[in-house]
Amino acid sequence: MSIKIRKAIEADSEKVWILMEKLAVFEEYIGSFAITLEIVKESGFRKNPPDFYCLVAEDQETITGILVYYFLPYTAQNRPAIYMKELYVDGNYRGQKIGEQLMQALKEEAVSHNCAQIKWTVAHWNEAGQRFYERLGASRNNDWLNYELNL
pTM for this one? Predict the structure, then answer.
């Protein structure tokens, strides 16, 4: 198997959306999952600038993983940051370092845009995810609590 990491294009929209939906099932928010294929196409590829960017891991023509992110242009460091919204590798492809390859590509993207950091959240119950990120050198930030205001 030869995995290629690349930026997603509009033609990838359906495969990206399928993995987004699988992530919603995995993280148990499928009941509130409101993303459609058309939203992925419009928000990620037709808008300028897009609402999100996406890296894909591809084995021949099969998209095996996605990493969805967006830029935070203004930070206290007076440099942009990247917020990683979703990282998901299809269950049939886990254990092959695809997540690491996607994270490495994101780090390269951050450096190329002069970003000061990459930020993300992990569910408290996702211990495997926490171990994965810590193995890559990430550290947990316990200085801030996450809050939400649902409208």
Answer: 0.94
